[in-house]
Amino acid sequence: MKKPITIKDIAEKLNVSVATVSRALRNSPEIKKETKQAVLKMAKELDYHPNLLASSLSSKKSRILGVVVPTINRFFWSNSIAGIEKVAYQEGYKVMIFQSGESFQKEVEIVETLANSRVDGIILALSKETSDYNHLKDVMNRGIPLLLFERVCQEITTSKIQTDDFAGAMEIVNHLVSKGRRRIAYMGGPLTLGVCQERLGGYRKALQTNNLEGFEVELEDFSYEIAGKAFRELWNQKTKPDALFCFADILAIGALNAAQRMQIKVPEELAIVGFGDDVTGRYISPSITTMAQPSFEMGEMAANTLLEIISGDQEKCIPKLEIVKPTLIVRESS
């Protein structure tokens, strides 16, 4: 196995000190332009690659952010990551992205890996299984800044960024009521997640305000197939809904597909509304009415907030809660 080239090898070739090579590679203003050019040229000739871990140990900064989300194959999460990465790159940081796959155990292992990799900070969205937060408290006790993103909990005192899910859910129900709907069903995710509790709470509050009774379906996971199966069971009940509000667009699309197979006319017989503005919902027919979250901007906000904490400014280190207002987008399905 070929031995990796070090800055000592470059220094010996050029007959300069290791410190000079190190400063030249960091583009230090103390080093002459000609010396920098010679060092970079020799580094390229020798195929030198910096040891990032060694650099982080000496500087106490890795300039790497860890991001943990349940999955990256959903529009909200992938678009949020794009926002995080944009800000991180502009500020000279790299991003390590992990998926928990909705597994608590995997989340624990990922957080431990990131902490041991000496990342400068972590942005995390809780898995649906997470109800114990000791792994997050441990990482904060080790001095690693943590920001909770979208899926948050009350037990951890740290900065958080989330959608105003309660208000968004209320607005969706009020929209359906304004369209003359009176039997509004709700299809939600596992109530272990705060975000699921908030959207269900907003749905219930809006029903109460409008003196309506609801139909509630709690799903164990977020998938087209599970939503379709749940919708068929819901429609087979004696009293059928005339509107369906789904926790996320993926559930709304799954329910819409099942409704179309059952030859239910949407929106004439049944209005369907989602949450999240998944790009798929814009192009299917009928297009899905949804509550849009500014996911890219939320990602940017998360990265900027975490970098402020990392900078060590005491005023900016005070934990803050940012609640982002979603926007109703009315399309063909309602």
Itemize the secondary structure elements and their pairings:
Blueprint: H1 7-14, H2 18-25, H3 33-45, H4 52-59, E1 64-69, H5 75-90, E2 94-99, H6 104-116, E3 121-124, H7 134-141, E4 146-149, E5 160-163, H8 165-178, E6 184-188, H9 194-209, E7 215-218, H10 224-235, E8 243-246, H11 249-261, E9 271-273, H12 280-283, E10 290-292, H13 295-311, E11 321-324, E12 327-329
Parallel strand pairs: 1-2, 1-3, 3-4, 4-5, 5-11, 6-7, 6-8, 8-9
Antiparallel strand pairs: 10-12
Helix pairs in contact: 1-2, 1-3, 5-13, 8-9, 10-11
H and E order: HHHHEHEHEHEEHEHEHEHEHEHEE
CATH architecture of the largest domain: 3-Layer(aba) Sandwich
What name does the CATH topology of the largest domain carry?
Answer: Rossmann fold
| DSSP helix fraction | 40-55%
Rg (C-alpha, Å): 25 Å
Mean pLDDT: 92
Q: In what range is the share of β-strand residues?
A: 5-15%
- Strands of the largest sheet, in order across it? 2-1-3-4-5-11
Largest sheet: 6 strands, parallel
Put simply, the count of helices is 13
E-strand count: 12
What is the CATH C level class of the largest domain, in words? Alpha Beta
Oligomer: single chain
Number of folding domains? 3
Can you tell me the CATH superfamily of the largest domain? Response regulator
Global geometry: elongated
User: Can you tell me the residue ranges where pLDDT is under 50 for at least 5 consecutive residues?
Assistant: none
Q: What is the end-to-end distance?
A: 64 Å
Broad structural category: alpha/beta
